[in-house]
Amino acid sequence: MKLESRVPDGPLEQKWDRYKFQLKLVNPANKRKFNVIVVGSGLSGASAAASMAELGYNVDCFCYQDSPRRAHSVAAQGGINAAKNYQNDGDSVYRLFHDTVKGGDYRSREANVYRLAQLSTNIIDQCVAQGVPFAREYGGTLANRSFGGAQVSRTFYARGQTGQQLLLGAYSALSRQIAAGKVKMHPRSEMLDLVLVDGRAVGITVRDLRTGQISGHAGDAVVLATGGYANTFFLSTNAKGCNVTAAYRAHRRGALFANPCFTQIHPTCIPVSGDYQSKLTLMSESLRNDGRIWVPTAKADSRKPGQIPDGERDYYLERRYPSFGNLVPRDVASRAAKGVCDEGRGVGPSGLGVYLDFADAIGRMGVDTIRDKYGNLFEMYEKITGEDPYRVPMRIFPALHYTMGGLWVDYNLMSNVPGLFVLGEANFSDHGANRLGASALMQGLADGYFIIPYTIGDYLSRAGTCPVDTSHAEFKGSAEEATSRIDRLLSIGGTRTPDSFHRELGRLLWDHCGMARNAQGLQQALERIPALRQEFHADLKLIGVASDLNQTLEKAGRVADFLEFAELLCRDALTRDESCGAHFREEHQTPEGEAVRNDEQYTHVSAWEFTGVGQEPTLHKEQLQFDNVSLSTRSYK
Ligand SMILES: Cc1cc2nc3c(=O)[nH]c(=O)nc-3n(C[C@H](O)[C@H](O)[C@H](O)COP(=O)(O)OP(=O)(O)OC[C@H]3O[C@@H](n4cnc5c(N)ncnc54)[C@H](O)[C@@H]3O)c2cc1C
User: Is the pLDDT of residue 322 over 90?
Assistant: First the structure.
């Protein structure tokens, strides 16, 4: 299989504009003849569904929550990047492009990233027009703060609720189209399969989560905007419902999965507090604008933080990376936190924690300013830990947060399966081996508001309407398969809950494919995962029936997919025998513990083809070309 990235020719700055002109259009009267299926109503899905409906296409939009407003995007806290240069501090489209390619450790496509940086400015205008209440300066102009991996302030924000406010904007646009009859919303509906006819994506198979009814839905194109797979690791900052099922089921039908081992660990999360914890909580990266990270200089120092004088504290990020200080990218900050904890200098009951301290900032700006900037985050921290971060430093530790890998897409955001488009965190596109903070919201909205509305027209005008409906044998076959999978799970009658298997899988991945990886550990994980999968299918305990609301059954289906997908994740990590970005192979590091890339052998996207459960998948490589940015060792010193 040859992977066609379809990156257009011409100078980097002109590629997208020239390409848009070359794309075929569907005339306004013909748009209403096309039906598009959008799975997902987060920022990427809601913006795509609303924009395509506004253009005149008929859209069916699916999500598993009771309302599109509850998509996981609602949880995003810190902000969204855009190269507006409102601060006059040297920002530009080129700088955002450069920071993103470098931040991703040179494992993303230049052309995609440049387009993303270009579109970033439109997103802010679009959202302001929708009424998104971005933070403003006293004089009324939009405010900015800084995020990791950048030396400019380009992050737009709405306190610590940026995702929620952006989602309300996209949801308003979506609701307008629902009321206009152009979008039919299907909440509480879980996609269980992708349907292909003659190699073209023509629909999906869905389970109604209230009644258990399985049904087929046909469309002229299918757009997946189903989010990331961080929950494969069980404990993560993602909403509990986030899962890999939609993307993985599409993968089983032929869509290539790219760079699954590029998983991001966020340095500032509330540490794990016990064995029965089911979720982790993020403390936004924005806090690193004002909070200072430190641990005691001495090992096993059990004094309270206030009793440790400044001279006996190690502000290790400021010490090791004086240029970027506390705002180094996430992969670098996470590994540094792990390093000081491994040395025995971690804080808190488990020793797996470091301090994020606001005392200096409060002294400099006053408590009211800090409350204005981060009030809801401080409140959340206090509710969870019982400690007041205005008075004592927060304790934080790295946790699974985001996934850069995803279904492989070309420049049009179409997968290798014709008619299957993938947006937002579900695709692999723009962040390489490490995403910079505040760039996921930017990418999701660029994909939904500004890219898919153009590229889908080109596809539909060439492919025409789908020649089949849901009476086609492929729809029937897919529904039968989904039903028998559910019946099989319900009939096992074993002793262990889906959560118990998921927890074990998560622990295995965290230990062997987490912040640091090595060949031996990955081999161990690859031996254990198939055995765990077998145990799952022999000893799963489920209650309830298929024809009713049954959240344990939903969970079991998702865990079954995690158990297959985890093997791909570890295989990818084993095959990529270099360190890059968040993928840190212990065999490849400098004496100071920095990642060592192998550009000669690994400057490519690894795109995996499914060949059967437990079978070795086939690796396809998309070679990455860097014409504008020179490959260099990332340095934040
Ligand atoms: C705590 C937290 C804070 C964050 N803060 C920031 C930030 O400040 N800035 C930033 O840029 N990024 C942030 N991120 C990352 C960012 O929020 C996400 O990457 C982004 O919102 C993902 O959007 P999405 O549209 O791709 O998917 P999601 O918002 O995850 O939406 C997925 C949608 O797909 C649907 N879906 C999934 N599977 C199925 C299925 N099988 N059938 C039917 N429907 C399905 C869901 O119902 C949902 O509607 C944060 C992430 C977390 C966890």
Answer: yes
> Is residue 131 exposed (0-12), middle (13-18) or buried (19+ Cβ within 10 Å)?
exposed
| Cβ atoms 149, 328 nearer than 8 A | yes
| pLDDT of 245 over the 90 cut | yes
Whole-number percent of the chain with pLDDT over 90: 93
* Rounded Cα distance, 355 and 366, in Å: 20
Enumerate the H helices of 81-139 as residue ranges: 93-103, 110-130
The closest of 43, 24, 20 to 425, measured between CA atoms, is 43
Q: Which structure tokens are listed for 577?
A: 């025998």
* Closest protein CA for atom 27 of ligand 1: 227
Residue 441 CA to ligand 1 centre (angstroms): 9
Confidence of residue 373 (pLDDT cuts 50, 70, 90): confident
Q: Is 289 in the pocket of ligand 1 (CB under 6 A)?
A: no
Confidence band (pLDDT; 50, 70, 90) for 589? very high
Q: What is the pLDDT of residue 274?
A: 85
pLDDT at 528: 98
Residue 366 CB: number of other CB atoms within 10 A?
11
The strand pair at 80-81 and 257-258 is best described as unpaired
Residues 540, 496: contact at Cβ < 8 Å?
yes
Cα(437)–Cα(453) distance, integer angstroms: 26
Distance 426 CA to ligand 1 centre (A): 9
**Which residues share a beta bridge with 396?**
354
pLDDT at 563 over 90: yes
> Concatenated DSSP letters for 212-246?
--EEEEE-SEEEE-----GGGGSSSSS-TT--SHH
Please say whether the beta carbons of 619 and 575 come within 8 A: yes
> What domains can you pick out in the chain, each with its CATH number?
266-400 (3.90.700.10), 473-602 (1.20.58.100)
Q: Pick the atom of ligand 1 nearest to 440's CA.
A: 11
Higher pLDDT, 286 or 359: 359
Query: What is the C-alpha separation between 424 and 405, in angstroms, rounded?
Result: 11
Q: Is residue 330 annotated as part of the catalytic site, yes or no?
A: yes
Contact 57, 35 (CB under 8 A): yes
Please give the average per-residue pLDDT across 46-62, as a whole number.
98
- Strands annotated E in 9-154: 35-39, 58-62, 80-81
User: Is residue 369 a contact partner of residue 325, using CB atoms and an 8 Å limit?
Assistant: no
Task: Show the CA angle centred on residue 241, arms to residues 546 and 43, nearest 5°.
Answer: 125
